[in-house]
Write a structure and sequence with these properties.
Blueprint: H1 8-11, H2 18-29, H3 38-52, E1 58-62, E2 67-70, E3 76-79, E4 84-89, E5 95-102, E6 117-120, E7 123-125, H4 129-147, E8 155-162, H5 173-181, E9 185-188, E10 198-202, E11 204-213, E12 217-218, H6 229-241, E13 251-259, E14 265-266, E15 269-278, H7 281-299, E16 305-314, H8 321-336, E17 343-346, H9 351-356, E18 362-363, E19 370-371, E20 379-381, H10 383-401
Parallel strand pairs: 5-8, 5-9, 9-18, 10-17
Antiparallel strand pairs: 1-4, 2-3, 4-8, 6-7, 7-20, 11-15, 11-16, 12-14, 13-15, 19-20
Helix pairs in contact: 2-4, 4-10, 6-7, 8-10
């Protein structure tokens, strides 16, 4: 990066915006947007639509596909999901970026964590404050700064705000993939870590439900005729758990077993739900083959059947040479702002995994600094709202000014 272009005036809009951004974040966090709360998500989408209208861009709702889920009885049903908000401005500009975020949280309408509490002048406990309503706010204000800059006409962007990221984006992954194909690079506003570090390489993730059927029988009179699906499920759970460590970084988490009924009935149905994380795409193939082998072994037993639902929805996101160059460019932007931007590999996954799979470089932790996400202790550092908005705006403006090579120039 040459650093010759004076960008300071183009960032001046963001000076002193902390109070305004904090007030807005409090309003947003007061709306419950659990992934299953369709009314809350609809209300939030309306609020976000009004907020992003300030960009004078095309704003529209995009329908999400339904999610295929397995019930506790092993039936496969379709579940409606919240829709996406899409914002488009200057799609033919020479610099084209996808900005992504999610409006849903892990906190449902019946979760005890619903209120906002200030811990000190800079720390706010709030459901979704960091993950990631704070991130959406950072994104919005960065774009507001871009629109007021000298370089606005050189930057075209598409924003996708989905409502199902916390459950793996089953209804929006195709929308994100198509948007990624229209962009040269992407920025995702998941929270940065409390110390400001970003997520670099990410593991891939798969969610699975293994469905087992046996044969019901009276537990006393005819026990031998029964085929206990819960036992078959438990044996499978133990065997699939043993795959952890078979490849470096491969982990299996058996999260839940459903099934069974009265004590005097041999249970004829059970469902095992589990997650698999891998570092490499070939390890996902290995895990899938091993899981399939275990399923086939159950089905081969007399009186039993088993089948698998789900798969690897989040491919691994490795630290490629292009991505490392993108991170280093961001680091230099941080230096300009007095920030030390570092990153490290993580086992966590997000929409950045799916966007990277479309072939473009993506940095996916550009949101507010915060921590204890997915818990009732989730907090957001309020001084990072203005800070991170400046960082993202500076990165975009440096690319538009030609001081940073376009990370996706090879796609032109």
């Amino acid at each position: 990066m040459t650093g010759k272009t004076d960008i300071s005036k183009d960032l001046a809009f963001l000076d002193g915006k902390r109070g305004e951004m904090t007030a807005r974040l409090k309003d947003w966090c007061a709306i419950n947007t659990g992934s299953a709360n369709l009314d809350g998500l609809s209300a939030m989408r309306g609020v976000l639509s009004d907020a992003f209208a300030a960009l004078d861009a095309e704003v529209e709702t995009v329908s999400s596909a339904p999610q295929s889920v397995v019930t506790a009885k092993g039936d496969v049903v379709e579940k409606r999901l919240g829709d996406c908000l899409r914002v488009v401005k200057r799609p033919q500009a020479p610099v084209r970026v996808l900005l992504a975020g999610h409006m849903d949280t892990v906190f449902g309408a019946d979760h005890p964590f619903q209120s906002i509490r200030m811990i000190d002048d800079d720390t706010m406990y709030a459901p979704g404050g960091a993950d990631m309503k704070g991130g959406i706010l950072v994104m919005l204000y960065a774009l507001m700064a871009v629109e007021r800059s000298r370089f606005a006409e050189r930057i075209g962007y598409e924003v996708i705000l989905n409502a199902d990221e916390e459950i793996g984006s089953p209804g929006s992954s195709a929308i994100l993939h198509e948007a990624a194909k229209r962009a040269q690079f992407a920025m995702v506003f998941e929270p940065a870590m409390p110390d400001g570090k970003l997520a670099g390489a990410r593991k891939g993730s798969g969610n699975f439900s293994a469905i087992f059927s046996g044969r019901a029988a009276h537990a006393g009179r005819d026990h031998a005729s029964g085929r206990n699906a819960v036992i078959a499920a438990a044996e499978f759970a133990s065997a699939v758990d043993a795959l952890s460590g078979k490849r470096e970084g491969l982990t299996v988490n058996v999260a839940r077993i459903d099934g069974g009924g009265p004590n005097n009935v041999v249970p004829d149905n059970a469902v095992v739900r589990f997650n698999v994380r891998v570092e490499k795409a070939e390890d996902a193939d290995f895990a899938s083959a091993e899981i399939g082998r275990l399923i086939d072994a159950v089905s081969a037993r007399e009186g039993f059947s088993a089948h698998l639902h789900g798969g690897f929805a989040r491919p691994p996101k490795p630290m490629t040479r292009e991505l490392e160059a993108f991170f280093n460019a961001l680091k230099q932007c941080g230096v300009e702002l007095g920030l030390d931007i570092g990153w490290k590999a993580t086992g966590g996954v997000c929409d950045g995994n799916n966007i990277a799979a479309a072939g473009i470089p993506v940095i996916d932790t550009l949101g507010a600094r915060g921590g204890d996400i997915h818990s009732s202790g989730e907090f957001v550092k309020l001084d990072s709202l203005e800070e991170r908005a400046k960082l993202s705006a500076l990165l975009l403006l440096r690319v538009a000014a030609g001081d940073i090579p376009n990370p996706g120039a090879r796609l032109q």
